[in-house]
Amino acid sequence: MMGPAHSLSGAAAWLGVGAATAAWGYPMPWPVLVVGALICAGAALAPDLDHKAATISRAFGPVSRLLCEIVDKLSAAVYKATRGKGDPRRNGGHRTLTHTWVWAVAIGAGCSAAAVWGGRWAVLGVLFVHLVLAVEGLLWRAARVSSDVLVWLLGATSAWILAGVLDKPGNGSDWLFTAPGQEYLWLGLPVVLGALVHDIGDALTVSGCPILWPIPIGKKRWYPIGPPKVLRFRAGSWVELKVLMPLFMLLGGAGGAAALGFI
Question: Would you state the pLDDT for residue 96?
Answer without folding.
Answer: 94
